[in-house]
Amino acid sequence: MTPRRRIRPDGLPSRVYVRNGSFYWYRPDGKWKRLARVDEGDIRMLDRLAEEKRKFEPTVGGGNLPRLVGEYVDTHKMKYADSFRDEWARRGDAVIESLREWNVERIDAGAVEDFLAASWSDKLPMQRAMKAWLSGFFSWVIRRKKLMQVNPCREVKVKKPKDRDVYIPDRHFLAIRAALMTYRYKKNEGKPNEKTIIGTVQTGSMMQCFVDLCYLTCQRSTEIRLLRWDQIDRDAGVIHFIPTKTEDSSGEAVDWPITPDIDAVLARAKLLDPAFGQTYVIRDKKGNPKTDQACRDAWEGAIKRVEKFDASIKGKPYTIKDIRAKALTDAKRAGYAMEELRIAGAHTDTTTTETYIKSREVPRSNVVLHLPTPKSA
């Protein structure tokens, strides 16, 4: 079958079409690949699309690295949590894109440094993440493929990024939260009949629930995005959180009490579409969990809307991850002990919690001085 050019946008990725109840990918070489049934959902389709692209695209390169990266990703991706699996696989795609003409035998520390510097020159956290990814890949090549003897990442040095010290003040936090729900623009600007029009953002109600739960529970945004209704234990009066970041390591978990504020947010989320067959608390129109990109786009869009009316927020590097920092810092300022905050943050020790908060809390001096006065003779 020959694909038809889309007359109107249907929300599907490029070269993906629906035929006979299934998603198909029309490859650049003219072949069709079945991805998944439509009733399996978009997430399954996107996973299969990424898998098929990794199998196909490496054939364009001239080196053996793309093929090996594809094999490494396919054999290791299921070891990672659902919330991180796609991101981990995309890092492999970035390696293939830049090093597709290379053979692994030729890669040394200098080649790795050049790759990191060229791709993420001003993003030290990403350089460190990619170095770790490559180190795992090269270790696998050494053990399983016997094509290398030394891991080139061993000699690569990446600077440690500075601790993030961003704190969102209450005024900016509330402004962003409000802008998630509404947008404003001026009609007939500069004219006598100028007026401000206020509209409603379609996804605003759900995004406000997302932000509220991030703050009220002090949990990572990933845990809130993937929060399921069956984690909410009404009999015990708690939400059972098992942080995805540590589920395969420390396994540190926390039961968070359902306070009246949290209960009110859950009640709001329950009434939003889709109203039936709900699995996730924070969900899209199809009932799937909100993606990281969707939440990030909504947050950044809200900040841009605030900037039009409040210049003080312009240029502020606020991210969704800073909500958790604000929550823990606010809790410390409210008088909670460090051990209580460690439990709230699901940290294994208070050292992590102390570092997390200290970088965002500016100490206040209690020293009071007066200008000297001349003494009488």
TrEMBL record:
Which InterPro entries does the record cross-reference, listed alphabetically?
A: DNA_brk_join_enz, Integrase-like_cat_sf, Integrase_catalytic, Integrase_recombinase_N, Phage_Integrase
Q: Which GO terms describe its biological process?
A: DNA integration; DNA recombination
Q: Which keywords does UniProt give here? A: DNA integration, DNA recombination, DNA-binding
UniProt xrefs under Pfam families: Phage_integrase
Q: Which GO terms describe its molecular function?
A: DNA binding
Enumerate the spans annotated as Tyr recombinase domain. 184-369
Q: Family membership, please give it.
A: Belongs to the 'phage' integrase family.
Mind telling me what this protein is named? Integrase
Which species is this record about?
Burkholderia cenocepacia
The beginning of the lineage is: Bacteria, Pseudomonadati, Pseudomonadota, Betaproteobacteria, Burkholderiales
